[in-house]
Amino acid sequence: MNGSTRVRRQLPSSPWLFAAPGLLVIGAFVLHPFVSTVVNAFTDRRTLVPGEFVGLDNFRELIHDDMFWIGLRNSTLYVVGVVPALVVLPLLLALLVQKNIPGITFFRSAFYTPVVASIVVVGLIWVWLLDERGLVNALLETVGVGRVGFLSDQWLLLLSAMTVTVWKGLGYYMIIYLAALANVPRELHEAAAVDGAGPVRRFLAVTVPAVRSTMVLVAALSSVAAFKVFSEVYLLAGPSGGPAGEDTTLVMLVQRTGTGLSGRVGYASAISVVVFVVTVALMLLVLRADRREES
Amino acid sequence: MSVLEKARPGAAPAPPAARRSRVSDEHGRRVRAWELALRYLLLLGVLALTVGPFLWQLSTSLKGPTEDIFSSPPTFLPGDPTLHNYERVAETIPVWDYALNSLKVAAANVVTNCVGSALAGYALARLRYRGRRAATLAFVLAMLVPVEGIIIAQFTTMRELGLNNTLVGVVLPGCISALNVLLMRNAFLNLPYEIEDAAFVDGANVWQRFWRIALPSVKGTLAVVAIFAFMGAWDDFLWPLIVLSDPSKFTLTIGLNYLHGTFANDERLVAAGTIIAVAPLIALFACLQRYFFRGVGEGAVKG
After folding, report:
1. Which residue, of A262, B108, B186, B295, has the greatest Cβ tally within 10 A?
2. Does any domain span residue A13?
3. What is the 3-state secondary structure (H, E, C) of chain A?
4. Residue whose C-alpha is closest to residue B190's, from B165, B160, B221
5. Contacting residues for B57 by C-beta, under 8 A, at least 6 apart
6. Do B73 and A140 form a contact (C-beta atoms < 8 A)?
7. Which residues on chain B are in Cβ contact (under 8 Å) with A36?
8. Per residue in A123-140, pLDDT tens?
9. Nearest by CB to A3, which of B73, B122, B197?
10. What is d(CA A215, CA A160) in angstroms, rounded to the nearest whole number?
11. pTM of the entire structure?
């Protein structure tokens, strides 16, 4: 023990030299932009105009902005649609690839491929799959269902984007669940089996309670990510957000209003503040629900 | 698709019946034949869903101009495979320049993240000084800030620095990520002090202890940081979309989106472009996957 105190004794300046590059980068490009986003939200700043303090004007304007409500609706729907699927499906997938049977490493890595592929590639592949003349429609026509306008209908488009998000996220959350499943005591399963519980019963009575905290983590991560969705919808619906912009999400709105030479930085910052508040609220909600269930 | 090619021999989807007596689960119990068959059936089903779309894209990219890519029922195998579409992508957009831009950005991101987060992680985990807790807190807070929300302020910061529309501007905001710093910090925290103590007694200074002793012991985490940094930079879409406006500076993701917008009518071209973008990543992942799954697993268990 006395040895370790020796190592901890340092020259006065060197520790800061070690930490300086990191602190500089996150200070300049994360913490400072965060503070200025909050400050800008109360100004009428534009890309080329410094802007002045306008109090709550931006937020008052938001309330009367139809596009904002459309964005808020779509981002919220996204959470509702995507999160349950991302909590349940990767767990089932993890159970499927958990057992060490021949070739299982191949399947594990193959299921991870959509995570590795960049979102633009994924988006373009799915646009082609769901296109009016794409693979899915060709298959549907072959079996006699007829073609479906996945990318032209407002709601089907949103649903398609959600499918893409779930498809791309499966492998990522599967890995998280795999790590959690590895820590489930085997004795519990064996005891339940001795008591005559079938696989479904054992899943509900043993596996689910054992990985519950991981499910909460996945719910928290995926709901925050879903609320901030940008790329999937942008790529499937186009920059303008689908028919009449009805598929615009909040982050798409931030990108659209805040960039370019005439970008309304202040107004976009106000939308960003709403995004911060909702994501923090989502996290607290998930964690709170978890604590209540536990007690 | 090299991941498939390489992993195929290990897959050995032999008929379950023949393996009945061989296959056992992790407690050494025999797995029943019907259960095994069902498992492989499900695994193949999920495989088709996860990898199928990539194969369909690959197949589309290899189909010639005379071949009907809209046929119903669809044909998976190109009748007369050709690399013509890959040549045409390069004629339509400077796809290799875009790939080079992406590579520069990704390489820079790997170097800065590995060096920066190793240094900062070491300072947070191993060095004693006033303000260490404040420094740690700064990184934790930075990790919690959603990138999507601060992107406009990052954009104005870049404008003020005169770095808009440059690759440096693309790299800077993520060049040392707070998450990576904290990953490195955890890795250094888990090292025993004794070895460093011995080096200290031998007269090694901070830098020597960091470089010769601590850093080589956390190679696994460093590899994970490198992979995350590469994938993150190679895949990023929103930030380069905002910061880059000059088509000659585009990274591959932005360039592909542009390709899609301009030539949406020729799916073969878009397909060839996407294969160019995804192939290096799949190859990288195939080479490093063992490291990767181990590293991620360790992190998850410890966290």
Report:
1. B295
2. no
3. CHHHHHHHCCCCCHHHHHHHHHHHHHHHHHHHHHHHHHHHCCECCCCCCCCCECCCHHHHHHHCCHHHHHHHHHHHHHHHHHHHHHHHHHHHHHHHHHCCCCCHHHHHHHHHHHHHCCHHHHHHHHHHHHCCCCHHHHHHHHCCCCCCCCCCCHHHHHHHHHHHHHHHHHHHHHHHHHHHHHCCCHHHHHHHHHCCCCHHHHHHHHHHHHCHHHHHHHHHHHHHHHHCCCHHHHHHHCCCCCHHHCCCCHHHHHHHHHCCCCCCHHHHHHHHHHHHHHHHHHHHHHHHHHHHHHC
4. B221
5. A125, A128, B271, B274, B275
6. no
7. 153, 156-157
8. 999 999 998 888 999 899
9. B197
10. 24
11. 0.86
Chain A neighbors of B172, CB-CB under 8 A: 25, 29
User: What residue has token string 């009016």?
Assistant: A132
Residue A191 lies in a domain: yes
Q: How far is A7 from chain B (nearest CA, A)?
A: 6
Backbone torsion region of residue A78, taken as left when φ is above 0, otherwise alpha when ψ lies between -120 and 50, otherwise beta: alpha
- B chain contacts of residue A143, beta-carbon cutoff 8 Å: none
Closest by CA position to A120, among listed B255, B247, B48: B255
Please give the structure tokens belonging to residue A51: 């802007």
Which phi and psi angles does B24 have, rounded to 5°? -135, 155
Rg of the Cα trace of chain B?
24
Domain count, chain A: 1
Which residue in the set A103, A125, A135 is minimally distant from B74, CB to CB? A135
Instruction: Find which of B2, B77, B156, B181 to mutate to test the A interface (most A CBs within 10 Å of its CB).
Output: B156
Within a domain: A207: yes
| Contact residues on chain B for A113, CB-CB shorter than 8 A | 3, 50-51, 54, 282, 285
CATH number at residue A67: 1.10.3720.10
Chain segment A229-281, per-residue pLDDT in tens: 999 999 999 889 988 999 999 999 999 999 888 889 999 999 999 999 999 99
List Cβ neighbours of B177 (8 Å cut-off, separation of 6 or more).
B113, B117, B229, B232
Domain housing A178: 56-292
Considering CB atoms only, which of A6, A21, A110 is closest to B116?
Answer: A21
d(CA B111, CA B174): 12
Two tokens at A235? Answer: 């790529």
The minimal CB distance from B50 to the residues A14, A111, A235 is found for A111
Q: Tell whether A74 is covered by a domain.
A: yes
Residue of B26, B152, B224 best to disrupt the A interface, most CBs of A under 10 A: B152
Give A192-238 pLDDT, tens digit per residue: 888 888 888 888 888 888 899 899 999 999 999 999 999 999 999 98
